[in-house]
Amino acid sequence: MQFNSRKGIHRMKYRLALDQILFFIAFSVLAYFKLFPVIFSDPNQWIIETLLSIFFAMIILSIHTNVQWFFAHLAGDINVKIQRKMKWFSFSFVDAVGIIPLIFFQMGWGRSIDSEKAYKGSKKGQRIWILASGPLAILLLSFVLQISAYGIEHFSLTMAAITELFARLSLYFGIINFLPIPPFNGWYIAGALFKKNMKINDHRNYGLMLLFILFSYDTLQNFIRWIAEHFLLLF
User: Fold this and answer.
1) Model confidence over 76-99: pLDDT tens digits?
2) Which of 220, 181, 230 minimizes the C-alpha distance to 204?
3) How many folded domains does the chain comprise?
4) How far apart are CA 112 and CA 182, in angstroms?
5) Cα–Cα distance between 75 and 229 in angstroms, integer?
6) Crossing angle of helices 157-176/43-74, nearest 10°?
7) Which domain holds residue 86?
8) Mean pLDDT over all residues of the chain?
9) 87 — phi, psi (to 5°)?
10) Max Cα–Cα distance, the chain, nearest Å
11) pTM value?
């Protein structure tokens, strides 16, 4: 009986890994066809922008996840220090599927933190703050970068363009992660309001299928850009 139980667990892990691979391939193919005209019109420019996007994406994911772990620690999660969850950078911050749209569409997501303080219990405000702290930190980063870009323009247009790319990537990441769709933070924030307990990968595959459709028809991209434009008008 114990053997069968272990065998079932291994099968479940394999199935989840296979799901990740399939969605990774699907989003990669989608990104290629969406960016096909851009790649061949100016390949050098595309390569440089992609490499910068990868670098900035790693910074964004590190800040986002570390801020969430910091507030989870303040909420009483003792595993943050014991298991050394806060790091300068770790590939555990990266979601294998979410990194593709983050780099190529500048709108993606990272891996959810596995702190019980964020997903379980009756302290709704605490759970919401832990989950929202990451995207809020990135939105603040975007605002600082946007202000900095205006000043940098007087010295170097190239550096200003790079700073604006970083600011745009941060802005889109912050906004999209508040949407109530799995696997975004907004989904778990909504769950904190209505459910006492949630699972980290709750309805994840359904959310990824919906996101793939939305990305395919540019619906999500246009919606996020529209929100971003109105957000910037506030400043």
Assistant:
1) 999 898 888 899 888 889 999 999
2) 181
3) 1
4) 10
5) 35
6) 50
7) 2-233
8) 90
9) -140, 160
10) 71
11) 0.90
DSSP letter string, the chain: -HHHHHHHHHHHHHHHHHHHHHHHHHHHHHHHHHHHHHHHHSHHHHHHHHHHHHHHHHHHHHHHHHHHHHHHHHTT-THHHHTT---S--GGG--TTTHHHHHHTS----PPP--HHHHBSS-HHHHHHHHHHHHHHHHHHHHHHHHHHHHHTTT-HHHHHHHHHHHHHHHHHHHHTTSSSTTSHHHHHHHHHH-SB--TTTTHHHHHHHHHHHHHTTHHHHHHHHHHHHHHHT-
Query: How does residue 137 score in pLDDT terms, banded at 50, 70 and 90?
Result: very high
User: Do the Cβ atoms of 40 and 32 come closer than 8 Å?
Assistant: no
Task: Please enumerate in sequence order all residues whose Cβ is within 8 A of that of 103, keeping only pairs 6 or more positions apart, or say none.
Answer: 50, 53, 54, 57
139 contacts 103 by C-beta, under 8 angstroms: no
Structure tokens at 1: 């009986």
Could you tell me which residues come within 8 angstroms of residue 206 by beta carbon, excluding any fewer than 6 positions away? 182
**What is the DSSP track for 192-207?**
HHH-SB--TTTTHHHH
> Given this model, what pLDDT does residue 1 score?
40
CA distance 153 to 28: 34
The rounded distance, in Å, linking the Cα atoms of 85 and 89 is 10
**Could you tell me which of 142, 135, 147 has the C-alpha nearest to residue 170?**
142
